[in-house]
Amino acid sequence: MGVIIMLIFLGVIVYLLKISSRKETKLLETLPVEDILRLLEDHVDFYKAIQTPERKETFKNRVIRFIQNVRFTDVDTARHTLLDEVLIASSAIIPLIAYPDWEYQNIREILLYDDHFNLDYQVNEKNHIMGMVGDGAMNDTMILSLRALREGFEKKDGSQTALHEFVHLIDKADGVADGVPEYLIPKSLIEPWLRHIRAGIIDIKQNDSEINPYAATNEQEFFAVISEYFFEKPQLLQRHHPQLYEMLNRMFKRYP
Ligand SMILES: [Zn+2]
Fold first, then answer.
1. What spacing in Å lies between the alpha carbon of 167 and ligand 1's midpoint?
2. Edge to edge, what strands does the sheet with 131-133 contain?
3. Distance from residue 85's CA to the centre of ligand 1 (Å)
4. Which of 117, 152, 157, 232 is spaced 20 to 30 Å from 211 by Cα?
5. Residues whose CB is under 5 A from ligand 1 (ion)?
6. What pLDDT shows up at residue 256?
7. Bigger pLDDT: 96 vs 116
8. For residue 74, what is the enclosing H or E element?
9. What are the structural domains of the chain?
10. What distance in Å separates the CA atoms of residue 100 and residue 189, rounded to the nearest whole number?
C-alpha cells in the first residue's frame, strides 16, 4: 500500500514539474487564425491599407506570434475579447512595420482594466491613466484600459493609447526611456532629434499647438504622443510639422 501511495506521489511530482517547465507560448493550432484575419480586415485600417499581399501576410503572422507569446490578463470586472488581443497586437506591430525581425523582449503580460485608472490602479471613468508600462517588479508588464484601447481604433482622432505604450517599450529597448529609440535612429540624427523634441515642447507650452499637450511632459512622452499622431494622421503631421514628420519617417520608415 505504502509503495502505491509513494508511486502516486512521485507521479504527481513529475506531472507538476512538467507543467511548470512548459513554455508559456500558446499553441498555434489552438489560435483561431481565420477569426484573427477577419478581425484585422474589419477593424484595423492600417492593415487594410498595406499595399502588397506579402507585407499583409507578414503583418498578420507577426500579430499571431505576438498573441501567442504574450499573456492577456483581465483585472476585476474587465472581460477582453479576441478583438482586443488583435487590436493590442496590431498596436505593437504597426510602429515596427519596417522592422520585420523585431521581437519585443520587454513585454510578457498585459493587464487589462475596464476603464481608465489612477496610480493606485483604481478604475473609474473620471481617472485619467489610459495605459502605462511597468517598471521595477512590474517590468515586462503593460497596463491598458480596454475603453481607451477600443476608442483608439474607433474614434480615429489621432489618439492611440496602446500604440503610445508600445512606443515607450521601443524607446526603452536600449535600456533607457528618454525619447531616443537608439535601435531606430541613426547616431547622426540623435542630436537633431533631441533639438526637435525640445523645440516642440516649447512650442506646445508657449503657442497654440494642436499637438496633444501631454507631449510637453518630457522627451519620452513627446516621442510617444507624436508617434501616435504620425501613425494616425500622417498627412496632417506632414502639413503642420514637416520636420518632425521627416524625422519620424526616417526612424519608422513607414513608407520605405
Ligand atoms: Zn506615455
1. 8
2. 71-74, 109-113, 141-145, 131-133
3. 20
4. 117
5. 221, 224
6. 46
7. 96
8. strand 71-74
9. 174-256 (3.40.390.10)
10. 22
Question: Is 191's pLDDT higher than 50?
Answer: yes
In Å, the largest CA–CA distance within the chain is 84
Among 207, 238, 240, 212, smallest CA distance to 224 is for: 212
**Ligand 1 centroid vs 229 CA: distance in angstroms?**
13
168 Cα to the center of ligand 1, angstroms: 7
Which amino acid appears at position 76 of this protein? D
pLDDT in tens, 197-218: 999 999 999 998 889 999 999 9
User: Around Cβ 37, how many Cβ atoms within 10 Å?
Assistant: 16
Cα→Cα distances 77→73, 80, 115, 128, 252, Å: 11, 10, 10, 18, 36
Measured at the CA of 163, the angle between CA 162 and CA 169, to 5 degrees, comes to 95
- Quote the ligand 1 centre to 224 CA distance (angstroms): 6
Question: Following DSSP, what letter does each residue of 54-72 receive, concatenated?
Answer: HHHHHHHHHHHHHHHHSEE
Residue 228: closest CA among 62, 107, 45, 94 = 94
For residues 215-232, one letter each, b for 16 or more C-beta atoms within 10 angstroms of the residue's C-beta and e for the rest, the string is: bbeebbbbbbbbbbbbbb
The pLDDT-based confidence of 254 (bands split at 50, 70, 90) is confident
249 CA to centre of ligand 1 in angstroms: 20
What is the pairing mode between strands 109-113 and 71-74? parallel
Whole-model pTM? 0.86
Q: pLDDT, tens digit, for every residue of 111-142?
A: 999 888 777 777 777 777 888 888 877 889 99
Q: List, in sequence order, every residue forming a beta bridge with 111; answer none if it has no partner.
A: 73, 143
